[in-house]
Amino acid sequence: MHxxxxxxxxxxxxxxxxxxxxxxxxxxxxxxxxxxxxxPGSGKTTLALKFLLDGREKGEASLYITLSETVxxxxxxxxxxxxTLDGIRLYEMVAADEFGLDHEQTLLHPSEVELGETVRNVxxxxxxxxxxxxxxxxxxxxxxxxQNPLRYRRQILALKHFFAKRNCTVLMLDDRTAEPGxxxxxxxAHGVISLEQTxxxxxxxxxxxxxxxxxxxxxxxxxxxxxxxxxGICVYPRLIAxxxxxxxxxxxxxxxxxxxxxxLGEGLFPGTNALLAGPAxxxxxxxxIHCMIAALERGQKAAYFLFDERLATLLIRSKALGxxxxxxxxxxxxxxxxxxxxxxxxxxxASAVQSAVEEDGAGIVVIDSxxxxxxxxxxxxxxxxxxxxxxxxxxQQGVIxxxxxxxxxxxxxxxxxxxxxxxxxxxxxLRFFEAEGVVRKSIAVIKTRTSNHERSIRELGxxxxxxxxxxxxxxxSGILSGxxxxxxxxRSLLPLNPAEEASAQ
Length: 505
Description:
Layout lengths: L4 E2 L4 E3 L4 H6 L4 E2 L3 E6 L5 H14 L4 E5 L4 H10 L7 E6 L13 E2 L6 H15 L3 E5 L1 H8 L2 H17 L3 E6 L9 H5 L2 E8 L7 E9 L8 E7 L2 E5 L21 H7 L8 E7 L4 H14 L3 E6 L4 H10 L5 H5 L3 E5 L7 H13 L3 E7 L1 H6 L4 H17 L3 E8 L18 E10 L2 E11 L9 E6 L2 E7 L3 E2 L7 E2 L11 H7 L1
Parallel strand pairs: 4-9, 4-10, 5-6, 5-8, 6-7, 8-9, 14-18, 14-19, 15-16, 15-17, 17-18
Antiparallel strand pairs: 1-2, 2-3, 10-11, 11-12, 12-13, 19-20, 20-21, 21-22, 23-24
Protein name: non-specific serine/threonine protein kinase
InterPro entries: AAA+_ATPase, Circadian_clock_KaiC-rel, KaiC, KaiC-like_dom, KaiC_dom, P-loop_NTPase
Keywords: Hydrolase, Kinase, Phosphoprotein, Repeat, Transferase
């Protein structure tokens, strides 16, 4: 991404931020003036410094002119990312009391001069340094000096024409504090990148960016989440499933349980997703893990994204049920990642899934659970759109996706936070029912788009030996409604273990 890209019409240069280069489909057209706007703290300075650092790596002269921050502040920002600004010319325009012969930078005085003189000083600096890349921070100071919009616009146009003759690529930063609704610069700039920062009632702040315009360049529109990490900005481009296709075998694979394969018709098909829905404690996670282990034992890789349960608890519980995950983690076949929905943005989560599939080669992905994922989203509509794009992407990659959805309640009518069953290729319903004074579990496949599945309900048993699935239950009705009715002696139920038998008696 750091190489210059020659298109049919123009030369593209890297922004220094890989994710943003992806959004721009290679980078920005060179020798143009761009506006980077955003409120204080949204990441403008970090983005601009990375842009200049990328130029330094290519041997290009770089210049940072600041009217709002000091050189010490810029240096502190760089140090927080592990950068050094050696080789980048920094010029600050500060108050007169900062002037001194012992200061290494050139000091100007925008508070004491007119806008025209400030612009002339900027031009003089550029002519002296002859940079290929320039950052001007920030336009709010120039706007205040202009005193009226017409004069401000004329001076910015003068700068634009001057930079164009010098073959400079320029980023002008605007913190939108002087005139928040002022859009006149959008028409002057060759491209506009807008950075946003929002604070939730709970959890960390969320950041996102949008390319408002980019003349002569086809880019990925819409909002893209990003975070500020040590080393710069990490942009998570919006996942577009239509851009990701690959061929894969379509033959069904086993879940590791012949009875569950029979319920599903033939098993699980690559490129499909299955939704496991039911109340808490009914066995959704255990069933998903069993299916995942069957894939791991076939030699596939898997990625498990855990939202609800603690990682240590899941490992202990799985091992107690005869499904030890640690060996698969140790040999690299399983990536087990605990997700904090209050700290992770939806775009970052989608990027993590994409990385697990494309970089780590995961053939099966488990999301546990959609309930917590829902709370990480700003609204239900966004959840549906995100899940639709993510599931479509996984399907086109030939991945088997298992999604867990917890339902409210234990018996009777159960309720879900959101219904996404229409997005699922397969829906597996798990329920509690009571027989012989013992609480039992049932499993049934409500729909599948890939085969003629079994319509019966079977009993699900979970103990220290793992999972067992019984024969179809014939003598109960109303199990899925939560109000089962016993109709006759049913010899298809699983035998009770000694503890359950003693409690029943």
